Amino acid sequence: MASLVPLKEKKLMEVKLGELPSWILMQNFIPSGTVGAFQRGYDRYYNKYINVRKGSISGINMVLAAYVVFSYCISYKELKHEWQRKYH
């Protein structure tokens, strides 16, 4: 059965694997569209984890964990040479 929602208006999780290349080509890749996508993502994250009635530290913990992983990936090249290796 065909979907009633146009392909351009579907969210990424609603797109089938066969429709993915055409869905990507329909997206807005100009700078204002990219900034808008990041802003919508930030708003969704903020409203789901930070701006809640009964909040917890989980939202901030996810940001800190992402920062730790990102900084490790950036400095991996330098850290790789400082490992203590033992040859038996």
UniProtKB/TrEMBL annotation:
<keyword id="KW-0066">ATP synthesis</keyword>
<feature type="transmembrane region" description="Helical">
    <location>
        <begin position="59"/>
        <end position="77"/>
    </location>
</feature>
<keyword id="KW-0007">Acetylation</keyword>
<dbReference type="GO" id="GO:0005743">
    <property type="term" value="C:mitochondrial inner membrane"/>
</dbReference>
<keyword id="KW-0138">CF(0)</keyword>
<comment type="subunit">
    <text>Component of the ATP synthase complex composed at least of ATP5F1A/subunit alpha, ATP5F1B/subunit beta, ATP5MC1/subunit c (homooctomer), MT-ATP6/subunit a, MT-ATP8/subunit 8, ATP5ME/subunit e, ATP5MF/subunit f, ATP5MG/subunit g, ATP5MK/subunit k, ATP5MJ/subunit j, ATP5F1C/subunit gamma, ATP5F1D/subunit delta, ATP5F1E/subunit epsilon, ATP5PF/subunit F6, ATP5PB/subunit b, ATP5PD/subunit d, ATP5PO/subunit OSCP.</text>
</comment>
<feature type="transmembrane region" description="Helical">
    <location>
        <begin position="20"/>
        <end position="38"/>
    </location>
</feature>
<keyword id="KW-0597">Phosphoprotein</keyword>
<keyword id="KW-0375">Hydrogen ion transport</keyword>
<dbReference type="GO" id="GO:0042776">
    <property type="term" value="P:proton motive force-driven mitochondrial ATP synthesis"/>
</dbReference>
<keyword id="KW-1133">Transmembrane helix</keyword>
<keyword id="KW-0496">Mitochondrion</keyword>
<keyword id="KW-0406">Ion transport</keyword>
<comment type="function">
    <text>Subunit f, of the mitochondrial membrane ATP synthase complex (F(1)F(0) ATP synthase or Complex V) that produces ATP from ADP in the presence of a proton gradient across the membrane which is generated by electron transport complexes of the respiratory chain. ATP synthase complex consist of a soluble F(1) head domain - the catalytic core - and a membrane F(1) domain - the membrane proton channel. These two domains are linked by a central stalk rotating inside the F(1) region and a stationary peripheral stalk.</text>
</comment>
<dbReference type="GO" id="GO:0046933">
    <property type="term" value="F:proton-transporting ATP synthase activity, rotational mechanism"/>
</dbReference>
<keyword id="KW-0999">Mitochondrion inner membrane</keyword>
<dbReference type="GO" id="GO:0045259">
    <property type="term" value="C:proton-transporting ATP synthase complex"/>
</dbReference>
<keyword id="KW-0812">Transmembrane</keyword>
<dbReference type="InterPro" id="IPR019344">
    <property type="entry name" value="F1F0-ATPsyn_F_prd"/>
</dbReference>
<dbReference type="Pfam" id="PF10206">
    <property type="entry name" value="WRW"/>
</dbReference>
<protein>
    <recommendedName>
        <fullName>ATP synthase F(0) complex subunit f, mitochondrial</fullName>
    </recommendedName>
</protein>
<comment type="similarity">
    <text>Belongs to the ATPase F chain family.</text>
</comment>
<keyword id="KW-0472">Membrane</keyword>
<keyword id="KW-0813">Transport</keyword>
